[in-house]
Amino acid sequence: MADLTTDFLGIKSPNPFWLASAPPTDKEYNVRRAFEAGWGGVVWKTLGSEGPPVVNVNGPRYGAIYGADRRLLGLNNIELITDRPLEVNLEEIARVKADYPDRAMIVSIMVPCEEQAWKDILPRVTETGADGIELNFGCPHGMSERGMGSAVGQVPEYIEMVTRWCKQYYDKPVIVKLTPNITDIRKPAAAAKRGGADAVSLINTINSITSVNLDTMSPEPSIDGKGSHGGYCGPAVKPIAMSMVSEIARHEETRGMPISGIGGITTWRDAAEFISLGCGNVQVCTAAMTYGFKVVQEMISGLSQWMDEKGYTSVEEVVGRAVPNVTDWQYLNLNYVAKAKISQDDCIKCGRCYAACEDTSHQAIAMSEDRTFTVIDEECVACNLCVDVCPVENCITMEPMKPGEVDPRTGKVVQKEYANWTTHPNNPGAVAAE
Amino acid sequence: MSDRQNSQMTPGIAAARLPADTIAENFADLHAPYAPHEAAVAADRCYFCHDAPCVTACPTGIDIPLFIRQISTGTPEAAAKTIFDSNILGGMCARVCPTEDLCEQACVRELAEGKPVEIGRLQRHATDALMAKQSHPYERAPSTGKCVAVVGAGPAGLACAHRLAMHGHDVNIYDAADKPGGLNEFGIAAYKTTDSFAAREVDWLLGIGGIDIKYGQRLGENLSLDSLAEAYDAVFLGLGLGGVNALRADGEDKDGVRDAVDFIADLRQSSDLTTLPVGRDVVVIGGGMTAVDAAVQSKLLGAQNVTIAYRRGRDAMSASRYEQDLAASKGVHLMFNVQPVAVHGNGAVREIELEYTTDDGSGLKGTGETVRLRADQVFKAIGQSLETDAELALNGRKIAVTGAGRTSRDGVWAGGDCASGGDDLTVTAVAEGRDAAEDIHAALSA
Fold first, then answer.
1. What pTM did the predictor assign?
2. Fewer C-beta neighbours within 10 Å, C or N terminus of chain A?
3. Which of A342, A350, A358 to mutate to test the interface with B (most CBs of B within 10 A)?
4. Where are the beta strands (DSSP E) in B381-433?
């Protein structure tokens, strides 16, 4: 069985699966249960400054969207940072860390953008023996209106400034958690790096309204007839998170910076994909909130099996393997030509490919009297929509054409050489090929 | 129950073989209605196929993918409207259609994984929702001043009458029985249509208005086609098959030998099934749905041994494999390749003698070898026949029709079991009644 031990910023954990800073990590009781279930580490739910803690709403805190059979696909929340006294949290963190020395214990922090506030809390965190801190610059609701959370994460200068304070007053690793509620994720990541951050973690939740109650006309979750945008997470946000992770992994200013991947990770496969895009480990929340802490056992066994099958002996070997293959559109090979192919043995004759192609694409699928569906190569641009809507996995495939063959759609011979938009004659800004 | 004298072992034909609560349980809904979440999960399995094979397979052409999508988005009433637009008896068809041979057989998920979308149960979910909520979802067009006679208040006649009424014609239905519904009311297993659904559905259907039903009117007895043709602008015959084919076996007239359709009708009209007698050893002769319905219900009433004896092999049986398996699961013994040659007994049947059959391609033949089964009750379910031809041209043993139910006589249409073409199914009768109505409407509007 593959060794899943990870070393992230010098912090060792038996596997790369950490629980993200969120309701599951708000209390000693929960975190002990998580460690017993097998989680490699936790990021303790965000601590605020000393003094009266924040208060939460007393109505619903979560909203959800569902797929088939009420499978939870997306969750949003309007819960704030911990609403328990700072002292209680610190004592619990110290106790749990002492009892589970092999697990990663990271403390999430969100205090006002004033140096003194950070100077006050960081020594207290140090005393707990925790392995590092994560700066919550991400929460999009409630705290942001008070100048914290995503209000900081949306201003790169603030990120850099606060990160610098933390590196000044705290000796262990500093992870900066980024908000996705921003146009270009590379800017805050670069700011964190300039401030001296050891790593970034992303994504935090996305501004969202999950649904509107059409009887009361209130957004959900509804508090006494009113709703507020909450932070969206769960399987639905994974593609957004992975794109942002990849941007940081390949941006020249941030390339090589350790990343803790977050965003809809539900299975071992999700985790492997994040890791391949440059994450040294991953953080999970919604999957645990949906299914309980036991889900980590599938993640551990699945990742191990896949690594064994692929011959990887450590997580480190997988980190960033897909990053070189993430590129800009303009560098995609325009000489690559594929055609859809329908396996008649696998086809169940639902005709969804036909409807999709005929109504919304290129009229490249023919339907016979006896419901045999075939691709018309003369029309097929290989858009992949038929593959995406086909209910049978691998029934429709995209088959690359070989160099030298003639593409019946364009009448042109498929070229072996790579050629992209930058040199394409239709590009007014094209440069001559070297 | 202390006052129950009989058991499954009681010889002869006797009532109350089982405790009342057992009988009630036995005759409960064969397929319980979906709970809302079950319906949502079942609906989600539909792929919303293009030009869906299930629609093609439905004799009434219900837009199945659309109605299932309407269920999945929480609007079962809109789904029901989609169903009723094509099939006004969609509620009954949801219960009695051999979906395993029709829409569900064609479902691409049947091909893909052997588990079709449960279209019939979804249809029931939708139609139940609307029927529970609304009095009647259709309005009549302005009156045309035309009046049409419909003979038979079964599925064909009701579907025809409803569509005609929608178009603004007045309709008088004549039925031989004392209540409407035809085979829906008298001829289908009770566990498929519980809680007087057939009667409730007719009441609901008549909510369209403009339809008047006259009972005790039997064509060829107290009703003539000539007088109807004279008095009305058009006539539709949906009179079904009132006659029952004979066994042509010695001793067929002995006590205890009766038509399966009569037994089923008695059962359906019984207000207390503990009073309905049934044999200890029951043999049903036949291979169709009526045979299965009679056999299964005999078993559910408490018959000790029930056998369906069919003269051909399993594959030739017109009852679907699903129905065969249902019968087997209730403890009915299925015998194939046997035909009745004699009914034995002194006054009442004691045994039935069956001859093994073979078919070498030149037609079914007896082998000469026989077997005797103990029987105190024998049900004949070897098909029904037309009781009157009303002097119309026949095609085989049914009223010949062309196009949308046009008979050999101008101004007279026919549909359902009495007319040629199509399977003898409720859903086919509905389609034929509906289509004839459209043709009548076109003729009257010309």
1. 0.90
2. C
3. A350
4. 384-385, 394-395, 398-399, 412-414
